[in-house]
TrEMBL record:
Residues 13-133 form the Phosphoribosyltransferase domain. Keywords: Glycosyltransferase, Transferase. It comes from Candidatus Ornithospirochaeta avicola. This is Phosphoribosyltransferase. It holds the Pfam family Pribosyltran. Gene3D superfamilies: 3.40.50.2020. The lineage of its organism: Bacteria, Pseudomonadati, Spirochaetota, Spirochaetia, Spirochaetales.
Length: 186
């Protein structure tokens, strides 16, 4: 059997983010700023800005070198040093598309904690239910995954060559799973 993939459309991303925005409001967390981890967190961060109108700062974290080889740990590619003073004492909403190994998210949290924010909350579209390489520090008390899923490859719309095919594949995936009586989301 071929490796199962989760196909996600822009429409689905928008609906998941809207749901998360409401969860954040209901939880009482009111962020001062949004920090988007690039490149996967850029589009979800921009969508959430529609519902939680806060400034967005972008950071680039890479787990791969120019040669596309996996590194031992994430490294900063682009950072927000010029605004570190603006993060002190602030509530930060950190956004990425997926929590897979958690290495990138935890690395970014560690860097942001050095700026002494009041609080950091983490938001992801998908949390893969598997052993993480690293845990969040105890300062992270709020974690917002839109969906918890099996450990599978996720095909996001921003990686699609053909957006119509992406939407078709998402629909076929849900139709197939429905006929099989399977639930994708835990």
């Amino acid at each position: 059997m071929a490796e199962e993939k989760l196909y996600v459309s822009y429409n689905t991303v928008h609906k998941l983010i809207k749901k998360l925005a409401q969860q954040i409001k209901d939880s009482g967390f009111d962020p001062d700023v949004i920090v988007a981890i690039g490149s996967g967190g850029f589009i979800p961060a921009r969508i959430i800005k529609t519902f939680i109108n806060r400034p967005i700062y972008a950071v680039g974290i890479s787990y791969y070198g120019i040669d596309h080889k996996h590194r031992e740990h994430p490294t900063k590619i682009q950072w927000i040093d010029e605004v570190q003073v603006q993060l002190k004492g602030k509530k930060v909403l950190l956004i990425d598309e997926v929590d897979d190994t958690r290495a990138t998210l935890a690395y970014c949290v560690g860097e942001l904690l050095s700026y002494n924010p009041e609080e950091i909350a983490v938001l992801v579209l998908h949390n893969k239910l598997k052993q993480k390489d690293v845990e969040f520090p105890p300062e992270i008390k709020r974690y917002y995954p839109a969906l918890e899923i099996e450990d599978m490859w996720i095909k996001y719309p921003w990686d699609a060559d053909d957006i119509d095919e992406q939407e078709r594949l998402e629909k076929e995936m849900f139709d197939r799973m429905s006929k099989e009586g399977r639930k994708l989301f835990v």
